[in-house]
Amino acid sequence: MLADDQPLIRAGLRVLLADTPDLQLVGEAGTGVEAVGLTGRLRPDVVVMDLRMPELDGIAATQQIAEKYPQTRVLVLTTFDDDEYLYGALRAGASGFLVKDVALDDLLSAIRVVAAGDALIAPSVTRRLVDALTGRGPEARGTGPRSLGATGGRGPAAITEREREVLTLVGGGRSNAEIAADLVISVATAKAHVARLLTKLDARDRVQLVILAYEFGLVSPGR
Q1: Which phi and psi angles does 96 have, rounded to 5°?
Q2: What are the strands, taking DSSP E only, across the chain?
Q3: Is residue 176 within 8 Å of 194, Cβ to Cβ?
Q4: Confidence of residue 122 (pLDDT cuts 50, 70, 90)
Q5: Where in the chain is the domain with CATH 1.10.10.10?
Q6: How do the residues of the chain divide into helix, strand and coil, expressed in percent and rounded to 5?
Q7: pTM
Q8: What is the CA angle 123-96-79, rounded to 5?
C-alpha cells in the first residue's frame, strides 16, 4: 500500500508496481489518517510511507500501524533524511528507511526485503543511526540500547558462536537469504537463528540487532 500526499509520487509508484509481477498494489492513502484506516481494512504486507502528510504525519501513522497491525511492515520513503525523522520513524516501528533519490530497482528490492521480515536502512544514514543509538554520536539523546530495552542486561556471552556469526552478518546489513548463503545453511535455519537472537538479547526487531552488533564490537562503522 502507498501512503503519500503527493498524487504525482503515488502515480509514479503505481506505474512502477504495475510492471512488477510479484508485487501487488492494494491501496493508496493521501493522509496519515487514511493510511491507518486503509491498513486496518486491507492488511497489506507493506506500507510505503511518506513522513510529511496532512492530518497525521508519517511517524505517528507508523506508530499506530505498528501497534494495531503488527503483521504489516512499514517502509519509510521520504525526501527528508534528517536525523530527527530517521530516529522518530524507527522508534515508531518502521522496518525500513529510504530517501526518494533511491534507484527504482533498489526500492522494489527494499519492499521485498521488508515484506520478508528483514529491516533495511539506506547506507547513507546507517552510520548516523548507529552512532546516535549507541550514544557515540553528537546527536545521541539517551537512546542507547539499554534505554531501548535491547539487551536486558545480557551481552554477547549469552549467545552461541554460530549466533555470533549470524549477528555479525545482520550488523553488516545482510538479509536472511544472504546470511544463509554466507554460512551455507538454509534460509529457514538463518531465520531461526535470527529469531533466537531477538529472544536472547531481548531485541524488539532487526534494527536493534544491527545496533547491538555495533555495540558488541562485532561490526565497525566502516566495515
Answers
A1: -155, 155
A2: 2-3, 28-29, 46-49, 73-78, 96-99, 120-121
A3: yes
A4: low
A5: 140-215
A6: 50, 10, 40
A7: 0.70
A8: 70
Helix boundaries (H) for 19-120: 32-42, 58-68, 83-92, 104-115
Class of domain 2-121: alpha beta
The CATH code of domain 140-215 reads 1.10.10.10
| Cell 531485541, located at residue | 203
Taking only the tens place, the pLDDT of each residue in 149-197 is 344 445 667 789 999 999 998 887 777 888 999 999 998 899 899 989 9
d(CA 59, CA 138): 23
Domain with CATH 3.40.50.2300 in the chain: 2-121
pLDDT digits (tens, 9 = 90+) for 12-39: 999 999 999 999 999 999 999 999 999 9
Query: Mean of the per-residue pLDDT values for the chain?
Result: 82
- C-alpha cell, 149: 530495552
